[in-house]
Design goal:
- The protein is α/β, with parallel strands linked by helices.
- It is 36% helix and 26% strand.
- The protein has a 9-stranded mixed sheet with strand order 5-4-1-8-9-10-11-12-13, with helices on both faces. A 4-stranded mixed sheet has the order 3-2-6-7.
- The longest helix is centred in the C-terminal third of the chain and has 18 residues, at 254-271.
- It is globular, with a radius of gyration of 17 Å.
- Bound molecules: adenosine monophosphate.
- Adenosine monophosphate (AMP) binds at residues 9, 11, 13, 27-29, 82, 98, 124-125, 148, 150, 232-236.
- Adenosine monophosphate binds next to β2 and α8.
Length: 302
Amino acid sequence: MTQVLIVGSVGIDTIETPFGRAENVLGGSLVYAAASASLLAPVRVVGVAGDDLAPSETEFLAKRGVDLAGLEIVPGGRTFRWSGRYHYDLNSRDTLATHLNVLADFDPKVPLPFRTTPFVFLANVDPALQASVLRQVERPRFTVLDTMNFWIEGRRADLERVLTHVDAFIVNDAEARQLTGQANLVKAARAVQKLGPETVVIKKGEHGALLFHRDQVFSAPAYPLEEVYDPTGAGDAFAGGFIGHLARVNRAEPEDLRRAVIVGSALASFAVEEFGVGRLARVATKDLEARIRAFADLSRFA
Ligand code: AMP
């Protein structure tokens, strides 16, 4: 087992779904990804928040062993805020507001002891920050990048630049189409591979995920949940599980990548069961193992 370094957003979210509303709850790509990955491997994070974020909010991560030494708290600063509204089928959402606040001037400094971390996850945040973190780490074994429509629209050139330096890219179906201009997901994945990463994962919400590794394709189902309350953070939880598994086995061979997609899918299925990060914070290793077994049963056939 080896360590994972995660850079991403720490946010305060307001979320509306057809099932209700949660106001000013802890969120952000770093938080969901670290909650997920820390079930599998030791995690250290680099991020920023304002002092309007109560220290008690991130305590559950510290209890999971997440090293928060790289989480900068800006005195008098306001934490990143995001609000979104989900449509009836929960597969699509509109962003209602994005306030970068302290993220706008963030200059990430990777603490010295973090710089040799072998597995690096550049979670959804400004691609210029992702690139800065990548420059500060020393020859990582495996790097994974995530992004979002906001950055594809606003920072495409920076995003394409950082994409040339990573091993794997995780993206949802709509964002893969937006980035490549290809409606067909196989063509979209191939187009992303041409931009740099040898491995591309396309998430399709309740329809599972596709893994493209070199010329191989692997299809994973999503867990058929009867109650889905809030998809926020599912993508980050997926990615945290994906890199967490690779760090746990300390390898990224084709078979490891396939299992990593299943582990990620299992963690994403927990993330959506409640509003915010609460469910993910309570998942125990035995719950995760049981759900991974359920995934194996889901598409087993003779
Ligand atoms: P996901 O549902 O996996 O796409 O991630 C949702 C999380 O991403 C929320 O908790 C938000 O706080 C965070 N988020 C939303 N927009 C951005 C953005 N532009 N940059 C960084 N994080 C964001």
